[in-house]
């Protein structure tokens, strides 16, 4: 968590501790890919990164096919572990300023249209009920943050990459995945005073089972086969989102400050090859 995510205070005390008779603070936690947006954000930047010479044509072809497989079946724990290993090698040495520039120039084209109308409506409903909205994703924070802002989310938690001397080291500062997601949620809840037993969570993937288990009101959205089976066993609600809508007019152009915070951009770009590696390791182009 960053300093900016510290709880707001009233008369010097955290909001949740000012008075016992105030309503319990709650939040709704949303996964991003296939839950809020209609495709994999980690594969979305393959074309602009190819055009700028960061990845080759073979990686672009693989990412297109991987996107198809991801939409059909998702990615399990083993595939995500292989992706993490592969990306640490791929990102090493990339120039951060070049990557920031590409993201700033292509963000609108990449995310338009991505967001499910049903997700946007659900987020609005939670806000009307007085709940904070938190987007939690394994994608890079530079992709997650602007989408979260466009949706009016209170916080965004995402993967962060390590940067030294203006280049990515190939190391991950924080991998927002699996149990790490759940731990990040618990830490944020402790800081903000959320009562997790009264909070909500939404995801499509079995890899987010810890995140769903962390709250009192889990719901699965467009679930993969394993998560659908788990939801049936636990009697969890199942939602189907099918209507992506354009956010072109709702996402502001990135400011210099916003672009300056895109240290994790490698996570989104390199996954075009990384997730492909795990999904397509039996294929050759």
Automatic annotation (TrEMBL):
Pfam families the record matches: HAD (PF12710)
Leader sequence residues: none
Keyword Magnesium appears in the UniProt entry: yes
Family annotation (InterPro entries): HAD-like_SerB (IPR050582), HAD-like_sf (IPR036412), HAD_hydro_SerB1 (IPR006385), HAD_sf (IPR023214)
UniProt GO molecular function: hydrolase activity; metal ion binding
Organism domain of life: Bacteria
Alphabetical keyword list: Hydrolase, Magnesium, Membrane, Metal-binding, Transmembrane, Transmembrane helix
Residues that span the membrane, as ranges: 257-280
Matches recorded under CDD domains: HAD_PGPPase (cd02612)
NCBIfam families per record: HAD-SF-IB, HAD-SF-IB-hyp1
Family according to the record: Belongs to the HAD-like hydrolase superfamily. SerB family.
UniProt protein name: HAD family hydrolase
Source organism of the structure: Mycolicibacterium thermoresistibile (strain ATCC 19527 / DSM 44167 / CIP 105390 / JCM 6362 / NCTC 10409 / 316) (Mycobacterium thermoresistibile)
């Amino acid at each position: 968590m960053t300093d900016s995510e510290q709880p707001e205070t009233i008369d010097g005390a955290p909001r949740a501790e000012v008075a016992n008779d105030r309503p319990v603070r709650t939040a709704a936690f949303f996964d991003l890919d296939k839950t809020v947006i209609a495709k994999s954000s980690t594969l979305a930047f393959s074309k602009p990164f190819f055009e700028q010479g960061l990845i080759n044509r073979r990686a672009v072809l693989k990412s297109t096919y991987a996107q198809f497989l991801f939409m059909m079946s998702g990615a399990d724990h083993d595939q995500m572990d292989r992706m993490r290993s592969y990306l640490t090698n791929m990102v090493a040495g990339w120039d951060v300023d070049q990557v920031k520039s590409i993201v700033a120039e292509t963000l609108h084209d990449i995310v338009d249209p991505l967001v499910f109308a049903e997700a946007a409506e659900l987020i609005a409903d939670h806000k009307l009920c007085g709940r904070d909205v938190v987007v939690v994703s394994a994608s890079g924070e530079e992709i997650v943050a602007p989408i979260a802002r466009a949706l009016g989310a209170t916080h965004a938690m995402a993967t962060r990459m390590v940067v030294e001397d203006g280049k990515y080291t190939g190391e991950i500062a924080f991998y927002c995945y699996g149990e790490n997601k759940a731990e990040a949620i618990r830490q944020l809840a402790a800081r903000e005073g959320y009562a997790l037993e009264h909070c909500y969570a939404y995801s499509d993937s079995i890899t987010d089972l810890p995140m769903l288990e962390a709250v009192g009101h889990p719901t699965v959205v467009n679930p993969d086969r394993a998560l659908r089976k788990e939801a049936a066993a636990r009697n969890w609600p199942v939602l189907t989102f099918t209507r992506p809508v354009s956010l072109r007019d709702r996402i502001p152009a990135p400011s210099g400050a916003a672009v300056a915070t895109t240290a994790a951009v490698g996570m989104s770009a390199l996954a075009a090859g990384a997730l492909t590696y795990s999904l397509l390791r039996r294929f050759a182009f």
